[in-house]
């Protein structure tokens, strides 16, 4: 084993140790929901934004707040409402009558971790105000652009069952989220533990376990995770199958309006690398790609009217593709 390989392995093991501290501390407040927590850590590792979707009461907001409490980073929570304005997110220019100048008043988006709570409760113009920040990692106020300090991560939540008073995310914005994670109900044992902890009356106070420099250190380790050429071809097959399913023996051409963009290809690889880091491995396995694929693809496969009539969504299309495309 070469010196460089040893150093890469050491960095990945160190990153896994840092993230395990975060996971253990968050686990003091959040019962179960391992998949959700792993996906939040994937977002933290890669810098990819995460959209959490689930019915009320599944600890979406609690998980994000607990993650923020565990990190020594600047955190801001924005409650999205129908009367919210773009300036309430990004900030605005303040006029000084003494000298006739304008100064920038920065909004809550200027933070390391931003919780966009119930993001589908605000109209499209407010949702769009996040686009520049999410994609370009900067905010323009007047004539000046202000760079957001790394790490910068938007963690958004939304409720899928309520339609009145909500504004579904446009495809252009949902595509900016690396992952769309669907949150399920806890199992019986987990719910019993929730019931037991509820008797304590108050949640445990979490303490920061990881500094900003350590978060950036884990991101540097990500680049050292090896992705075999056969696995890269597998990723390309998965994404191509969303665009030309007939080439892979899938009779679903009439169900798919638009397939996944190249952004999905990049996020599949980076997400698989992040899962490898969480496991302390310096290489990606096919299982990593299959595990992260539903979260990367479900909001990037746009189905046709025919599919909607049959009750088929992007997640179902992704499931069929994963079953059909050969694993190396």
TrEMBL record:
Residues annotated as domain ATPase AAA-3: 49-179
Keywords on record: ATP-binding, Nucleotide-binding
Signal peptide positions on this chain: none
Recorded GO MF terms: ATP binding; ATP hydrolysis activity
Start and end residues of each ChlI/MoxR AAA lid domain: 252-320
A UniProt-annotated Pfam family: AAA_3
UniProt family annotation: Belongs to the MoxR family.
Name recorded for this polypeptide: MoxR family ATPase
Source species: Eiseniibacteriota bacterium
